[in-house]
Amino acid sequence: MTADVRLTDAAFDPAALLSAFTGRFGSAGGVVSFLGQVRGGEGVEALELRHYAPLTLPGMEALAETALARWHLEGLLVIHRHGVMAPGDPIVMVAAAARHRRDAFAATDFVMDHLKSDSWFWKREKTAAGWRWIEPRDEDFADRARW
Question: By C-alpha distance, which of 2, 6, 30 is closest to 93?
Answer without folding.
Answer: 6
